[in-house]
């Protein structure tokens, strides 16, 4: 005996009703927890990277003995010369930018752990400002670093990284750490955009 189409429809619906399906609310909660965990990890990583960048350049100094030719008819005189990060304003700006970003990452991480509501918009704006600040510091330090590495023949600025090699390597390491920290702050902004998109 063949079953009617109506009966088949009702039996199929009954079978589907017997299967437990995840509710949209459970999926939203899972996605929210995943975004929150990712945000905490990104803020912790940005905190550590900007802190490391500020420390690596903040303790950077090197002293070398350089021969200086005073008079062409006399042999060169060996003079001790030091290279320190605070001798250049671009490096000072870099350290200050990373210190500010590190402090902000610490306080924003505390707010994220507490889960305080009503600060999402302010956090996104501050994240964007931190990204701009870090990229400004990285750009200034990179420009000066390239001059120290290659020099500038047009204005007769000699390169110094062939003399202060360890100092320049430490500057490059600090720049790398700060650049990765900047990328993490960019990802935090993207996480906030995804959260707002799913909310509205």
Automatic annotation (TrEMBL):
Subcellular localization, as worded in the UniProt entry: Cell membrane
Segments forming domain Casparian strip membrane protein: 33-183
Pfam families to which the protein is assigned, alphabetical: CASP_dom
Keywords: Cell membrane, Membrane, Transmembrane, Transmembrane helix
Gene Ontology cellular-component terms listed: plasma membrane
Topology versus the membrane: Multi-pass membrane protein
Main location: membrane
Membrane spanning residue stretches: 40-59, 85-113, 125-149, 169-194
NCBIfam families xref list: A_tha_TIGR01569
Quaternary data: Homodimer and heterodimers.
Family: Belongs to the Casparian strip membrane proteins (CASP) family.
Protein name: CASP-like protein
Taxonomic classification: Eukaryota, Viridiplantae, Streptophyta, Embryophyta, Tracheophyta
């Amino acid at each position: 005996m063949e079953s009617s189409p109506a009966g088949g429809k009702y039996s199929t619906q009954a079978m589907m009703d017997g299967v437990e399906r995840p509710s949209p609310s459970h999926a939203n909660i899972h996605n929210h927890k995943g975004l929150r965990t990712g945000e905490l990890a990104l803020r912790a990583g940005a905190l550590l990277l900007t802190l490391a960048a500020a420390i690596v350049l903040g303790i950077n100094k090197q002293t070398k003995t350089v021969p200086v030719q005073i008079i062409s008819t006399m042999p060169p005189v060996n003079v001790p010369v030091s290279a320190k990060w605070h001798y250049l304003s671009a490096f000072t700006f870099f350290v200050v930018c990373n210190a500010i970003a590190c402090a902000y990452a610490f306080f924003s991480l505390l707010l994220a752990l507490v889960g305080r509501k009503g600060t999402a918009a302010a956090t996104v704006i501050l994240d964007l400002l931190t990204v701009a600040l870090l990229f400004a510091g990285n750009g200034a330090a990179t420009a000066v670093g390239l001059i120290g590495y290659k020099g500038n023949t047009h204005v007769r600025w000699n390169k110094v990284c062939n003399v202060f090699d360890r100092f320049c390597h430490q500057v490059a390491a600090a720049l790398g750490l700060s650049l990765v920290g900047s990328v993490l702050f960019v990802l935090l902004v993207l996480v906030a955009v995804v959260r707002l998109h799913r909310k509205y």
